[in-house]
Amino acid sequence: MVLQAVSEWGPEDAMYKFGLQALMHFLDRLHEWPSFCDRLLRCPGIHGTEAYDKVEEILRGEMGVDTNGTAQNGLVLTNGAVDDFLEAEPSVSPFTCLHVDPPAHPELYEEPDEDIQEKVQFVLNNVSVRNFENKLQDLRNALERQHHQWFAAVLVEQRGKQQPNHQQLYLNLLDSYDDKALWALVLRETYLNVFRMLNAESTMNSSSERGHLKNLGGWLGSLTLARNRPIKYKNISFKDLLTEGYDSQRLLVVIPFTCKVLLQAAQSTVFKPPNPWIMEIIRLLVELYHTAELKLNLKFEIEVLCKDLDLDLKTIEPSDAIQGPRPIAEEELLGQVLPNGMEGFADLSLMGLNRVRGPNERFSPATITAALPDLGSLLHYPPASNGSHHQLKQIFLTAAQQAIHEIIAPVVERSVTIAAISTAQLVDKDFATEPNVDRYRESAHTVVKSLSGSLALVTCKEPLRMSITNNIRIMAGNLAQQEGRNMLPEGNIIMFVNDNLDTVCSLVEQAAENQSMAEIDTQIEEALERRRRHQATRPNEQFISPNLSGWALLVPPPYRQAPGGLNGEQLAIYEDFGRQSRGIPNHANTVSQDSGRQMPDVLQDHFPSLSSLPTPAEAPAMPRPGPQQQPRLPSAMSMQTTSTQPHMNGFVELHNIADRVQELLAELQRAAHEASEEHIEELAPSAPTREICDQLIHIIEASGQKDNLALGAAQRVTAVVYSEGKRPLEIEVLASVLHFLCTISVATARQVLIWLANIEDDRVFNILVTVSFLKMGLMDIHRVDVTVSKAIQQRRNIALEFMLSLTDDVLGNDQVAVLRVDFARTFEALAQWLADEPGVELGRQIMSRLQPSAPFDALPSPPSSEKHDQLEYIFEEWYRLQRPETSEKSYAAFIHQLHERQIINNQEDSAMFFRVCIDASITAFDIEEQMPFGQLNRAYACVDALAKLITSLVLYQGELDGAVKGGRVAYLDSILSLVVLVLCQHHQMRLGRFNHKVFFRLFSAILLEFHAAKSASNEQQMRITPVFAKAMLATQPKFFPGFAISWLALVSHRLFMPALLKMPDQSGWDVYAQVIEALLAYAGELSKSPDMSMAARSFYAAALRVILMLGHDFPEFLAENHFRFINSIPVHCMQLRNVVLSAKPKSVMELPDPFTEGLKVDRLEAVRKSPVIRGDAEAPLRQAGMKDAVNALLRSVEHDDEHISQILEAVCHPQRTETGYDFVPIGVDTVLLHALVLHIGASAVAAAGSKGVTFSASSPHAKLLERLTMELRPEARYHFLAAITFQLRYPSSHTHYFSCAILHLFGHSTDDQQTQEVQQQIMRVMLDRIMVNRPHAWGLVVTLLELLKNPDLHMWDLPWMKAMPEIERMLRAHFQHTEYSSRGLM
């Protein structure tokens, strides 16, 4: 409001004066809102005022700017202009890998005067190749050294960023100027602009801004790489930039910029490939290309980069910077153990808890505390042993009052504001259909009261504790100086604070609840007024808020919002919300039991080091997971026992507890060592080891310093667990204790995980410790694999001993902790070692144990020995093998074992195996989808693994020893047939719960895997693609409606459609034409219903887009197959038919403009060429048994009535049932009519031969068309004429012939009733095609124009035209449109 007043009103207006006065009242707080100051600085109305000077001073302080315009952080403000640089604070964190060098000698530069600026701008506007030398000299004369900073900014921001086509010209100008200092300034200004745009949120939201960033990328590359100059790591680390962009979902900005920069390396002799620096970045881009699910435009950027650098994208090995293990950071490890939600408020200064507040703020302490009860009567005071009870009581009371006075205003303001805004939005959404004003208000009051009170409570507790303690110490110190002795021991202070903290907090909570009522009433007043107006004006109508989302009425119960307001169950949530207990004890009765207990050893201790005193912690607000949720050593009973040692006022010496913890750890270790059991599972509930562990856990959890105690205990455990001589039970117990310590202390978990993740010495090879930590989830199994594989590559025997023990203890037992594939890199390294040194005995033993000679039924598996479980185990192994670092050799070895052991040796085994894999994939997807924060990549992980398995099985088919011999194409066909069978079973059994996403992902992933497979040749891929087409025909929507949307996405897939249509000799056209016929038939069937569902509309629109795409990219395919496609489209789908019929081969370069004056169609060279018609167009005639009759009629002008009757009989009594819109039956065979018309036209064109197409009204073909037109009944005649217009397409012999036929059938003006009916039907057929949206076929437009403009036809004077004025108006409007529009009806 203040900003609006000073920016939109003049100094003479009262509103401006109000805004300026309001601004003056909070000048001392302006530094808290730098973005607001930035906007104020842009307001000319405050220039020359005290507020302007204050705002400018604040902004300079924020940026750390001195008088020369140099920022402390290294950024330069052009000529010291703050408002040219500052922007609003970004909502996303800036990239950490971008750094700009500090300016060199900023004091030398200044902004030139207007005359010099105009001269320089004139040079830049008019420079060209022809006048380059003259303009360069003009620039030298106009530009002085002190103006270089300004010139660099202009050159980068106004030229390099916005004029990419002239970048080279400006670079040549800069190069010829030959000033290294100016070059450095331009480079630095480029960095500044690039960094600003990369970090700006507007770049993510604006395509034009992203275009400017790409221009700057090319400009930066031209300044550096193209001239063999490096981009220093300290300025831009491209690998870190791409990694941060991936993590923060800003690849849309980062990838195009990076590609544009690297693109300039093609002009370099140093940085072009195979330069290691640029290849590392490209490998990371390739990894993102394959794994990051990029949009097509981002993938295209990477493809263009590789093409321009003469690199083959398929041969570049991706890096593992994204998918592989990254360096362990504390934040990542913290995220693994930190629960969802806030643990506390780390920053208690929000809304200014620690600042001095002005006297005119909305929430003043005096106003708030006036409504609170007297604090003195609520406090409980500790006993005084020195006779100064009254003075001490006054100190305690004053300290509490001062603490409340300092804290209450900001806490209440913050809590009430946040709670009111949240409540208003929440209630407005949930009560969008609630007309009752009182219910709306009561629910809002209930929620805001609870929210504001809870927020105030958690915000104020620790500040109040510190403030009360400090106030007491200060006042007690002053009193001690006056009395000459210390009258208040530290124990009394702690006792008072602990006894009364909840009481003081309750007052703040009560104040927040009281203030929130007025605030929420203000927030919801507009909503209440809207409901009052509705009740007054429309009491009988249902109330629906304009803010209601359209989906709110469509979601399933219990979340659906019904008209009339919330139901009983939904309203109960609000009613119960206000009754929730926050777990705060009754303040009136909360008195420390220590108040009446004399403890001279505590109360008389003066505690010389006050800063080291720990603050007792309170119990957690939420209960921690019990033993049934987190498996650990302690029993459930021990967690419910209470401590037998009383806490002294909530405070116990930390070192005493720490000593006790260390003693219990020693006892636990001794008890585990002496126990007769070997494993933790064998311990009885009353075993001494469990009892000691229970005590240890309880002491740590109940203490006020559990983080310090847990960390100390963890250090002791990690130091002891790796010592020699430990029994398995000791190690398992210690690992269990360490796991529990990590669950109760985030700080401990952070340190433990960091330490364990960075162990790279021989301690990793302690088999007992490593296995125990792996079971507890404390170590990453992949990091262990990497460490062991490195040791084997170094030929270390200790690694072999470790793996031998691992195969005995873990991989070979019934309780599978890890799988063999988890150590894929290790086994690969071991195989290489044995290949080099076959005599390594330990290595041979390991490999022999991994390759049992037992049959399939005896393979290692989970406890169940059924074949189903065996197959699940195998697929689990394959799934665990899918890691970025897994080599192709590991995949080949796994497939080799499958073939060697004949696990899927026959059709029955294969069917069962793939059914198990698909079921496991669907189960994994369903589980992840039902999770509150499920991740899409994780949900599809099993499906992608299955696709990789199918691809590998096919590619290695017949190549490996032991593989089942057979053709790859036939093998893939059998696999996809099994997948289709499983899909059919799921579709029938699950019905509405059919999961089409999994099968779509499976098919698409198989396509991607085959496309990316390096071992598959182009010939093999071309043979594989028709197999997919066969699977698509088997899964068409006619058979599986629940798979329709996914099926449509698959048949239009970028790796399927082009591959099939680009096959040599058009060998894939026929099968894909069958796919398109299925698509058109199903889309047309959906469109017949008058009440199309939203899903049906979406499918039809998508099908239309696919046909449009085919018409654009493969027009020959549509044009040559138009006969088949038109027969598949229902008669009412005019636009879909027009799209097919508008396709023209690319050989027809440009269509003549049908609106050209004097256009002679018969003189076009194209009308002498016949179009290509694919498919058997005569098949319908043969099936109807009328081809011989038609041919006989075409040989003679005199028609045999018997043949005519045969044709009429076949047409009017169709053998198949066909329906139109609203499923109205069609009484003729439209396909037979279409074939008949096409046969007549093709015969006429063939009869003309080389003479050219000349329509002759006396020819047998024209006579037959005329005879059928007159004798067919009206319905059949309409479809017959429509079939003729189907051939009015691009310029060809067929188009010319049938255009003349239409004009001939239209005839001349006559009073014959039948002739007029024919004319009307011709015009109706033409209008049905023209009145829908574009495109329209060229031949159709030409023919219609001829009908409208030919004076011999007397169109406008026909009787039926005069009888239907609306048709006449419509046609005249189109006729006028053709005269004034260059596009007309096309």
From TrEMBL:
Region (Disordered): 609-643
Keywords: Coiled coil, Nucleus, Repressor, Transcription, Transcription regulation
KW Repressor (keyword) present: yes
Domain named CCR4-Not complex component Not1 C-terminal: residues: 1008-1373
Gene3D superfamilies xrefs: 1.25.40.180, 1.25.40.790, 1.25.40.800, CCR4-NOT transcription complex subunit 1 TTP binding domain
Residues annotated as domain CCR4-NOT transcription complex subunit 1 CAF1-binding: 109-327
Compartments reported by the entry: Nucleus
Keyword Nucleus annotated: yes
Source taxon at top rank: Eukaryota
Annotated GO CC locations: CCR4-NOT core complex; nucleus; P-body
GO biological process: negative regulation of translation; nuclear-transcribed mRNA poly(A) tail shortening
Domain CCR4-NOT transcription complex subunit 1-like NOT1 connector: 702-836
GO MF, one annotated term: molecular adaptor activity
Predominant place of localization: nucleus
Pfam family, one: Not1
Domain CCR4-NOT transcription complex subunit: 391-535
Coiled-coil region: 654-681
The CCR4-NOT transcription complex subunit 1 TTP binding domain, residue ranges: 2-49
Role summary: Acts as a component of the CCR4-NOT core complex, which in the nucleus seems to be a general transcription factor, and in the cytoplasm the major mRNA deadenylase involved in mRNA turnover. The NOT protein subcomplex negatively regulates the basal and activated transcription of many genes. Preferentially affects TC-type TATA element-dependent transcription. Could directly or indirectly inhibit component(s) of the general transcription machinery.
Protein name (database record): General negative regulator of transcription subunit 1
Organism per entry: Cryomyces minteri
